[in-house]
Amino acid sequence: MSTLSAEAAWEQCLDIIQDNISYQKYKSWFEPIDPVKLEDNTLTIEVPSQFWYEWLEEHYYGMLRSTLAKVLGENGKLEYSVVLEKSDNETNNRSVRLPQRPMPPDSNQNENMSGYSEYSPGKIENPFVIPGIRKAKIDSNLNNNYVFDRYIEGDCNRLARSAAMAIAENPGSNSFNPFFIYGGTGLGKTHLIQSIGNKAKQEYGNELAVLYISSESFTNEFVQAIRNNRASEFTMFYRQIDVLIVDDIQFFSGKEKTQEEFFHIFNALHQDGKQIVLSSDRAPREIPDIEERLISRFSWGLSADLQIPEYETRYAILERKANDNGIELSPDVLEFIAHNFKSNVRDLEGAIIKLLAFASLQHVDEIEPQMAKQVLKDMIKESHTSISIEQIQNYVCDYFGIDTNKVREKTRKQEIVEARQIAMYLSKQFTDSSLKTIGLHFGGRDHSTVIHAISTVEERMQTTAKHKRMVDELYQKIEMATL
Ligand SMILES: Nc1ncnc2c1ncn2[C@@H]1O[C@H](COP(=O)(O)OP(=O)(O)OP(=O)(O)O)[C@@H](O)[C@H]1O
Question: Does residue 152's CB lie within 6 angstroms of at least one atom of ligand 1?
Fold first, then answer.
């Protein structure tokens, strides 16, 4: 029977432990532990959380058993008292006993006492499930506006949206793990993956630790953790997460250490049935400089892409965004925006915000289509895709039913001259090319010929209605092609 006090026994244990693991690990995992009591040759120690206990169990089981045997004899036992968080102000403790498992085969005490990096006991089943333990409070980093209700469904996102919803309702217990969502900029990846987090939290409350993080922040935090010798705490933190949402995973490209760390976290969470949600601007296989083992894991669950929204979805999104911003827009204005902002949802939002700013600064109650055109003119120009002089020549020659090569030749036939001049005029309108460059595309003519062509077209547009109509029609055709 031992006459030691709990403090003295633990002190002796710490001496042994300290000699066998790195100072950093000792400080991180053993220093914060308090001895509670020593009764019936059973030493009770208090650990800060269930996770702490599990970590010790998984990584230091062998070492603790042999240490205890040295201090208390072969039948010495260890009991953990886990601090339970009941509410923010209230805490209580619950005790669990270190199970009497056999020592790992072919290990002598010294080998066992070398800490988790050297001793790998394999997957240890944790026999203790302690009900009612709350997860440590984690700031989920979620934006409350990114919810399913505000995410308009369309053909462009139907699969991704319904999978996301299913995941949020049943995180981890579904075959979409990981859920990998990809698509171009401003198409709604962040909104959708955050909706999963918000919905899961709404469904499960504090039972579920949800974390949203950009891959850049993950990388920065990891670098900091290494710098401050806190890599194991970093890992420990991520291993507590039930729903881990990592945005813009393509930024892991070329960052080998971060990829390795993420690989281990991914494996641990996946193995424990925790949900992983990832986003990227491209499909897994297309991300450069990412380890093959990660790429293959990214493809384990479900990959879904987001497409550019079609007209009807753009219209519905605009209507919704206008509503959310307290601005009423007529169908004409909504149509105008939906027709002119095609490439992504962020631009649609930008258009609404610009109109909103205009309306409030100018004290305008209702925005007329003409007004909207004027206000959004510059944005529309920016969102145009560029068009080449050759493409303009094709449009014009198609319109006049002539062979495109003709406008580049020396011919002076009246209808060819007219088409050539209009094509030069439109090239000036739709491209940033200099007069000299435009001339070069029309059979090496000089810039004065281009100036002459432009002024001739402008003059005729003012004097001949038919000519104006022709140029306007062509202008619209080309404009449509650039949207
Ligand atoms: N289907 C949708 N319904 C409503 N709003 C949407 C939809 N898709 C995108 N949005 C909105 O468009 C904006 C841009 O979306 P988000 O930031 O999620 O895009 P992203 O794909 O993550 O872009 P990036 O790759 O540039 O980060 C957000 O304000 C989002 O709310």
Answer: yes
